[in-house]
């Protein structure tokens, strides 16, 4: 059996951690399928650079449609296209702002095939949602804890699933539908997927505006995205100089591979191609 990792990229080099998310997950895959929007040259450059470095990487291009409903479904459309092109019997969906701890990946590597032979269709993981340079829980520490982050829409997610016609992405790709046999990765309660939400200060407003203008465009149903972006813009003086953005450590940094830790305290993302030279 083969495992295909799916990486769906749309302007990810602007404000996410695409190289680091890839490096934290690529080891266990037989195929790393990068579905990149060709509109963004830096994303395309990184995708084909990885293809030149890793023989398991395959790049497909998919331009995100401009006429999709404004309910986040454009993400699902791109993700379903990637899934249709995957060659593996199982898939792992990796978002560009997610980092997988080394112990978690080791456990998946050592156990997924036996679980699949036993009939497993989908595997759910705990997700630890952090924000602002991984300094706090998403939505702020007050009212949040390890088990539930108040600013997140989910604290567990199905990321690993069987590749078959009945199992598909939900409309916005934040979940997987039609799983009959589901298990939870208990190790993820100790070593969760680290979702580094709104991680970089300098691109925070741009990221929020992009979400409102390109993905969640239905103002009647999802007007909070635009309101949040506008609120951040108008209150920039209140949060821009907060020392949390330049703190070089995090109380959660033990979950991060060593090559991710230098990003702590950086206020914008830069693709560190030099990391590939050390591999």
How many structural domains are formed by the residues? 1
Q: What is the chains' assembly state? A: single chain
**Average residue-wise pLDDT:** 95
How many extended strands? 12
CATH architecture: Alpha-Beta Complex
CATH top level?
Alpha Beta
CATH topology: Spore Coat Polysaccharide Biosynthesis Protein SpsA, Chain A
Order of helices and strands: EHEHEHEEHEEEEEEEHHHH
The span between the termini is: 26 Å
Unreliably modeled segments = none
Q: How big is the Rg?
A: 18 Å
Number of helices: 8
Q: Decide which structural class fits the backbone.
A: alpha/beta
Strand content: 15-25%
The coarse silhouette is globular
**Share of helix among residues?**
25-40%
Biggest beta sheet summary: 10 strands, mixed
Describe the model.
- The chain has 8 helices and 12 strands.
- With 279 residues, the protein is α/β, with parallel strands linked by helices.
- It has one domain: Spore Coat Polysaccharide Biosynthesis Protein SpsA, Chain A (Alpha-Beta Complex).
- The strands form 2 sheets. Strands 1, 2, 3, 4, 5, 6, 7, 8, 11 and 12 form a 10-stranded mixed β-sheet that branches.
- Strand 2, helix 2 and strand 3 form a beta-alpha-beta unit.
- Helix 5 runs antiparallel to helix 6.
- It is globular and about 55 Å long.
- The model has no long low-confidence stretch (mean pLDDT 95).
